[in-house]
Amino acid sequence: MIRIENLKKYYGTFPAVDGITFEVKSGEILGFLGPNGAGKSTTMKVITGYYPPTEGSVTIDGHDVVEESLITRGMIGYLPESNPLYTELTVREYLTHIAELRQIDKQIRGRRIEEMVELTGLTDRLSQPIAELSKGYRQRVGLAQAMIHNPDILILDEPTIGLDPNQIVEIRSLIKKIGREKTVILSTHILPEVQATCDRVVIIHQGKLRADGTTDDLMRMYRGDSVIDLEVKFPGNSKPDFASLETVKGVKSIERLEELEKGIASLRVITDRDSDPREEIFKLVVKSKWTLLGMNREVQTLESIFAQLTMGDAADAATAGEEAA
Description:
By secondary structure, the protein is α/β, with parallel strands linked by helices.
């Protein structure tokens, strides 16, 4: 288990990470989210031992990453965003070099390399120079080197950045496969990837923790009023009483957006967050002798929650989420 407690990291007087606390359970795939400059990469570099914390602590299975650095580094596999590789080497040469640096016993070194290239789909690329590989295959090499010493924890910083859609699907599938056996911290800007891959999400902004929970937890916590957009047709000479929609249980207010053309109006219905009054709205439209041309209910997404927590005054957003809960 990874325990981050009151972690602070300053560059000069600038607080890149400002007092965050959270845990990562064994066997969990954690999505670590935040906009550029939020402090994600700095946090991961403190966990891996690349940077010392200014204040606070990080422990891995009870071992402090500063005081017992050699122990904790051996427990972690790390794929940084830049994925530095010796491109003049072949895949086999590079993985052999990493295995030597990791002090893997010579008797099992070859077997570990074979296991990693099979897991990451590099078997037919072993003799190929890394310089000749596509970006997707280079990411596979990065994953192989991160796992060559069989660590319990895998930390991946933007592992699918710069990949095409097919490569993203392949790497995502590989991460899920790896996550069956290891604890994974995954930093990414691709939010559908988090929903498809991660068990839990931590969101930071301006160095501070803004949210921590499963995607379902966050949906419930930060969901505000629901919105239903309507498009209705009514006799051109009539004056429809759209306010009658407010009599439907769960409807809070009605906003007439525009008249698209004579006799056709666009409406926005604001409802309680736990209500879905579409059936009753439909019945009222029929009773009023209007024609329903369209009805669409907006659904809260991880993207909208992320925007709510990281745009404008994040403190206000967090407070709004707490009040909504």
